[in-house]
Design brief:
The structure is a single chain. By secondary structure, the chain is an alpha/beta fold. The protein has three domains: 181 residues, FAD/NAD(P)-binding domain; 116 residues, FAD/NAD(P)-binding domain (3-Layer(bba) Sandwich); 80 residues, Enolase-like, domain 1 (2-Layer Sandwich), CATH 3.30.390.30. Strands 1, 2, 3, 4, 5, 6 and 18 form a seven-stranded mixed β-sheet that branches. The chain has a five-stranded parallel β-sheet with strand order 8-15-9-10-11. Strand 12 and strand 13 form a beta hairpin. The mean pLDDT is 95. GO terms for molecular function: oxidoreductase activity, acting on NAD(P)H. It comes from Pseudomonas cedrina subsp. cedrina.
Length: 404
């Protein structure tokens, strides 16, 4: 970084979880210079997982989801710009332009622009989405007892909304285009368990269906079926906000591409969170998870401060469905060993050719599988060759395997 740039600010574009965590980490790590956090939403940085659960249920509010309050932000000297988004990025001159025409120079820049809900071509008043806090509030007011709700998309957002809506007394139908629920990220046995759980709770789950059109009071399927409904929630994935990076000439694939330090193809610009496309196991990928936003937000802050450590955090996610919990860590491999847990739970282990644990997936009541997943994380780090029969044996604790 040149001497001329040293006096400029560090700027974070995107005031969501990853951007907010990066800003807080910069202060925690002793950065005392000017720090600017620019967000599209009017709110302070917050976490998104509660949106489909506590916020929809009315048991959580924005303050409970936020990474910090405005008093803390002011104490830390973090300048929060809301309602004045970045419209142009000029990497050559280390500056960016806001919607009001103002140019801001930067010494280092983090792009944590996240994404937006992928939308259907036909926009109608009773078609709702869930990506932001304000969208969660709009959906919450629509979920009244007896409301006939159609959820388009059988991924985690759609299924969590379905579970919450059932708890609020709605009649719920889930439409999934694929042959199973959350098929992109879950093994078939867990997809089947999810399907059975939702049907037990009265959700009408339809697989292998194609949406033809949405009317004012019904959804039409390609096979001619007409499903009367009051509201439609669409959960068909996220569209990463790469437009700013693309227009500035950065290397962009399915997200903003970065190296091991989360550096983009432009000098002094980094990326983190849902919009970041990084290498894992040699392949580029994005991860739209709480864990990734938290870990990459922290790591990008360290990279902005000149630390050269590679980003090596294990991937993982969780989802709460009624009174059951799903947790994963690491990566999926072809060699899978399963262990039955009490009350119909299941733990899947993914091994490499040398029988080292590479990943795990747990499904059980409540949060009971969390301790097993924590132990699996330690087994992955330990790189011990594991005995397949011992892994499958529910009588043998994972702590014993960790001790070798």
């Amino acid at each position: 970084m040149s001497e001329a740039l040293a006096s400029h600010a560090l700027i974070i574009v995107g005031a969501g979880h990853a951007g907010g965590r990066a800003a807080l980490t910069l202060r925690e790590e002793g950065y005392a210079g000017r720090l600017i956090l620019i967000g599209d939403e009017p709110h302070l940085p917050y976490e998104r997982p509660p949106l489909s659960k506590g916020v929809l249920q009315g048991t959580a509010d924005l303050a409970g989801c936020s990474l910090c309050d405005s008093v803390r932000l002011a104490e830390l000297g973090i300048e929060h710009i809301a309602g004045n988004p970045v419209t142009h990025l000029d990497p050559q001159h280390h500056r960016l332009q806001l919607n009001d025409g103002q140019w801001l120079p930067y010494a280092g820049l983090l792009l944590a622009t996240g994404g937006r809900a992928r939308r259907l071509p036909q926009e109608q008043a009773h078609v709702l989405y869930l990506r932001t806090h304000d969208e969660a509030l709009a959906l919450r007011s629509a979920l009244q007892p007896g409301t006939r709700l159609v959820v388009v998309g059988g991924g985690f957002i759609g299924l969590e909304v379905a579970a919450t809506a059932r708890g609020l007394g709605c009649e719920v139908t889930v439409l999934e285009a694929g042959p199973r629920l959350a098929g992109r990220v879950l093994p078939p046995v867990i997809s089947q368990a999810l399907l059975e759980l939702h049907r037990q709770h009265g959700v009408d789950v339809r697989l292998n269906v194609t949406l033809e059109s949405i009317q004012a009071d019904a959804v039409l399927l390609a096979d001619g079926q007409r499903l009367p409904c009051d509201r439609v929630v669409v959960g068909i994935g996220m569209q990463p906000n790469v437009e700013l990076a693309t227009a500035a000439g950065l290397d962009v694939g399915q997200g903003i591409r970065v190296d091991a330090q989360l550096r983009t193809s432009a000098p002094d610009i980094y990326a983190a969170g849902d919009v970041c496309e990084f290498r894992l196991g040699g392949l580029y990928q994005r991860q739209e998870t709480w864990r990734n936003a938290e870990a990459q937000g922290r790591h990008a802050a360290l990279s902005l401060l000149g630390r050269e450590a590679p980003f090596e955090a294990l991937p993982g996610f969780w989802s709460d469905q009624y009174d059951w919990g799903l947790q994963t860590v690491g990566v999926i491999t072809p060699l899978t060993v399963s262990r039955t847990l009490p009350d119909g739970g299941l733990l899947l282990f993914y091994l490499d050719a040398d029988r080292h644990l590479q990943g795990a997936c747990g499904w059980a009541r409540g949060n009971s599988v969390a301790k097993d997943i924590k132990l699996c994380e330690r087994l992955i780090s330990a790189r011990l060759p594991l005995d397949i029969a011992s892994l499958a044996n529910p009588e043998l604790s994972l702590k014993q395997l960790l001790r070798g």
